[in-house]
Amino acid sequence: MPGPMQQGRPGGPQGGPPNGKPGGPPGGKANFKALGRLVRMLFQFFPVMVPVTIVCILFSSVAAAIPDMYIQQVIKLITDAFEQGWGWDEVKAQLVPKMITLVVLYVVAIAAVALYTQLMAFITQGYLNKMRQSMFRKMQNLPLRYFDTHKHGDIMSYYTNDIDTLRQLISQSLPTLLRAGTVVVVVFFIMFYYSIWLTLFTVVGVILISFASGKMGGGSAKYFIRQQRSVGQTEGYIQEIMNGQKVVKVFNHERKAQEEFDKVNEELCADAYKANAYANCLGPVVNNIGNILYVLLAVTGGIMVLAGMKNPSIYGAMHGSALLDVSIVVAFLNMTKQFTGNVNQVAQQINSVVMAIAGAERVFSVMDEEPEPDEGYVTLVRAEIAEDGTITETQRRTGHWAWKHPHQADGSVTYTELKGDVVLDHVDFGYVPEKTVLHDVSVFAKPGEKVAFVGSTGAGKTTITNLINRFYDIADGKIRYDGININKIVKSDLRRSLGIVLQETNLFTGTVMDNIRYGKLDATDQE
Q1: Dihedrals φ, ψ of 265, to 5°?
Q2: DSSP secondary structure code for residue 415 in this structure
Q3: How many CB atoms sit inside 10 A of residue 424's CB?
Q4: Cα(488)–Cα(498) distance, rounded to whole angstroms?
Q5: Nearest CA among 234, 230, 235 for reference residue 270
Q6: CB neighbourhood size of 322 (10 A)
Q7: 430 phi/psi in degrees, rounded to 5
Q8: From residue 204, how far is each of 112, 188, 200, 285 by CA, in Å?
Q9: What pLDDT is stored for residue 490 in this prediction?
Q10: Given CA atoms 26, 27, 33, 35 in this order, what sign does their dihedral have?
């Protein structure tokens, strides 16, 4: 039998394609089309829960922003009471309804938050479950060539690291972005309602925050994408070395393996360091810009109040007040803190969004792979064979099988008994198009014959058996099975008609009986 280092096989040093192609598309920029695709799938999987969750998030966000208006009204009420000498009963009559309304708002907001957090927990885990199922189903239909050209550890990384980035996006980043974005919009309009000048002053600070977020977020995005790819390559290399540990030992390859791992690991370390260096600077920078804006706004508002400056606003036009007073400045400071704080939350989610996009691109690169083509239309059926050789299809177990061959020209159907007559007729094949490993090969095996392929490692012995099973398609020539071109036979039926013992055996999790039954899932215990 050919040894584990045989050439001409997938991943072999001569005939096979290069093993270890990194997953995911190239480039270092976030692809927001992948984010849009993720969100669309979210609505497809949970068409009712997601809209309900969005409504709860929006309601809780608005409820969190509106109390600033009540704070201004309470402060205004207290200052008017002191200036005009109101009694406690008069103050209480106006203050109590506002406080009750404020409490009700907070209670409803808490209920909305509790509801959407529970819904998000269910949606997140359900979404990841469906994504893993979709990816696994897709992987079952991929051709062997895909697994030959991708490291298995890198493929495993799709199910672990890349899927985990989606968990962070759905459970944390998207709700935070929606909630913070809503608060920013609502607070902005409330601020504009109270003071146009102070709002414009705040907008200048927000522009600086957005500029800093764009610069640092862009840098972290590039390296977070690289980090996600490096994680997959590192896991792929570790898995490859673990599987080939005997070969490493036999050829005293430990030091070389260590050197190659160090190189891959250093690349991951460098990408992760640069990504987190940008990300860790973003929060403090944005926070401090917000603090500076808060101080400058307090000083500016105080000067405007002391100077008796006019305050153009919708509030002033509605209440006949053209001047800026303390109640507006105090409420404005609170709104500014809330405004910049939520802008900071949006900025902080950039990294999680970018990582999720990188993970989504890798996941979608698998889901968008072309499945194993199968243009066959000849099927394997149970058959009854009469004494005169006539073959008829049956559902009974007769011990006989036949190929059911529909002819498109005249609509007739013919049956050919399954005997196992195999012919390779002038076959050319290469694992990669530019390198042919089998050229003009013609061999045959008659039913009942025992045929042995003998040759040096890499001569193509295993490759020929792979071609008969259509694990790979030939470049030229024909392979006939019972006189039928195997390209016309449905792949599942072709493989069902053959028995093959691979040189690399694999034991699946379970009992010995489970592993024996793997070749025939409906086999009885006695069989």
Answers
A1: -65, -35
A2: E
A3: 20
A4: 16
A5: 230
A6: 13
A7: -150, 140
A8: 33, 13, 6, 16
A9: 93
A10: positive
Counting residues of the chain whose pLDDT is more than 70, the rounded percentage is: 91
* pTM for this model (two decimals): 0.70
Q: How much is the pLDDT for 429?
A: 92
- Cα 94 to chain centroid, rounded: 54
Residue with token string 């819904």:
119
Residue 403: closest CA among 459, 483, 521: 483
Among the listed residues 357, 315, 389, 29, the one whose alpha carbon sits nearest the alpha carbon of residue 174: 357
- The residue written with tokens 């003009």 in the block is 440
Distances 346 to 172, 211, 286, 323 between C-alpha atoms, Å: 11, 13, 11, 34
State how far the Cα of 448 lies from the Cα of 136, in Å rounded to an integer. 39
Residues of the chain with pLDDT below 70 are 1-30, 72, 83, 217-219, 320-322
* pLDDT on residue 46: 94
For residue 380, the surrounding DSSP H or E stretch is strand 379-385
Tell me which of 3.20.20.140, 3.30.450.40, 1.10.10.60, 1.20.1560.10 is the CATH number of domain 46-367: 1.20.1560.10
Residue 334's pLDDT is: 81
Residue 329 Cα to chain centre, angstroms = 46
Q: Looking at residue 6, what is its pLDDT? A: 34
The rounded distance, in Å, linking the Cα atoms of 175 and 120 is 9
Tokens of 395: 């559902």
Selection from 284, 263, 261, 265 nearest residue 273 by Cα: 265
For residue 158, give the DSSP letter. I
Q: Which residues of 111-124 are buried (b: 16+ CB within 10 A; e: fewer)?
A: ebbebbeebbeebb
Give me the amino acid identity at 482: D
Residue 393: name the closest of 408, 376, 381, 403 by CA: 381
> Could you tell me the two tokens for 467?
């071609």
414, β-bridge pairs:
405
Q: What is the DSSP letter of 487?
A: G
Strand order in the sheet with 379-385: 391-393, 379-385, 401-406, 413-417
Strands 413-417 and 438-445: unpaired
Lay out the sheet containing 484-485: strands in order across.
Answer: 438-445, 422-429, 476-481, 484-485
Tokens 């309804």 belong to residue: 97
Domain range summary for the chain, segments of one domain joined by +: 46-367, 379-502
Tokens (6 digits) for 507: 């034991």
Q: In the beta sheet, which residues pair with residue 385?
A: 391
CATH code for the domain defined by 379-502: 3.40.50.300
Q: What is the pLDDT of residue 453?
A: 87
Query: Do 149 and 21 touch, CB atoms closer than 8 A?
Result: yes
Task: Give the residue among 331, 339, 105, 79 at the shortest CA–CA distance from 203.
Answer: 339
Phi then psi for 466, rounded to 5 degrees?
A: -65, -35
